[in-house]
Amino acid sequence: MEIACPVRQSARSSPFVTADARSHTKSSGTSATEPSAPLPVHRDGNVLRWLSAYAASMVGDSVYFLALGWAAAQVAGPAQVGVVMAVGAVPRALLMLGGGVVADRFGPRKVVIGSDAVRSLLILAAAAALWLATPGLWLLVALALLFGVVDALFMPAVGALPTRITSRGELMRLLGFKAFVDRMGRLAGPPTAGFALGVGGPEAAFAAAGVLFALSLALLIAVRIAPVLPDDAVAEGAQRTSAWRELRDGLGYVRRHPVVGPLVVSGAISQIGITPPLTVGIVLLGEERGWSPAGVGLILGAMALGAGISTLGLAVAGRFPRAGLWATVTLAVASVAIGAIGLLPTVAGAAAVALLAGLVSGICGGLSSTLIQANTEPGYLGRVSSVMAFTAVGLTPLFFPVGGWAAGVWGAQPVFVVGGAVSMAAALLPLAARAVWRAELPDKR
């Protein structure tokens, strides 16, 4: 299939016509190709319900993972705890791309509501089992596996929803708020889990996670999702093929698209370079330099703070000219900054550079994700989202042992330098794609 998806799409082909705009055009006699001006996301009750559902889900995720580790520690040794915590990643990695096919074939709303319902039931059932008895390690392993399977469906479907709940011009603002809510939700998760564990142990923490997932489900059911336009019927699956064929078609779409393809590949390579230094490398660097755990936490906290500030800034601004060019430039700056963390001798210096890295990486991530969503045809959003999620949960963790091995042989400093260089190569990749560095965000309508 010939792919022709310019950055500035016409209103006729836009997937960003909201349900409210459609109902307005019917009542006023205006053509559906000329939607009325939509509400800003911070004033749109439908969008706010979706963001609230997403926040509840993120906090629930954090509570669940901490409760799972705590419960495993009570019935098994450290090695078995590691197995329980890691086993859920296997189905996520193996099934994530298939989850994108399911989201595109059946619609992201159905998939995200169904998977959220199953998550809630699973965790509440685990809470009941722990309250009634003392199950063995097998229950926790089974729970982790099943939760990983459901997550492989949930994550691509969530990634396919933003373009159907807001207008084109509000997309960057929505994704900025989504990124900010994601970070705040993950910060709120550990204290919530700690309180629940202190009050009633793992069963109370599982119950809290299940209630949060149920709250997310109730809010999602109330969210209105815009239907696709007739022009998108073929891409949406009017001509059904096998699931395997749809998966190959989705991967081919990413490979051939002049904007989506380079940005997805660049993001994947960048994560491979950046994530090992910031997970394994930072701990080993702290040991080499004699930094306290609090110092290491300060460095990571500074980067998270910077990213939170910049994503919130994107959400407030709503517009960013020359988005493709600046996404590339900010990734290059972030790559240099992360490489420099390994060269600095003091915690204060490393934290300052980490703050800068967070600020520019938040801008890069927000612009890249908005450009990818804005240039993906509606019928491919689930599969494109699944490719991005697969990189984060399936591909990147494979490089953690490589980073640890390299730090053990050559020290932690080269891990940061090499990781920054790999990420810099990812930043240079879009420069070879003219469509990327000339890409603009959708106009406000």
UniProtKB/TrEMBL annotation:
List the CDD domains: MFS_MefA_like
Q: Which Gene3D superfamilies match?
A: MFS general substrate transporter like domains
| Stored SUPFAM superfamilies | MFS general substrate transporter
Q: How does it sit in the membrane?
A: Multi-pass membrane protein
**Which cellular component terms (GO) are annotated to the entry?**
plasma membrane
**Region feature (Disordered):** 1-38
* Pfam families referenced in this protein's UniProt entry, alphabetically: MFS_1 (PF07690)
What stretches pass through the bilayer? 51-73, 79-99, 204-226, 294-316, 323-344, 350-372, 384-403, 415-437
- Is Transmembrane helix one of the keywords UniProt gives this record? yes
- Which cell locations does it reside in? Cell membrane
Record's protein name: MFS transporter
Print the keywords alphabetically. Cell membrane, Membrane, Transmembrane, Transmembrane helix
**Single Gene Ontology MF annotation:** transmembrane transporter activity
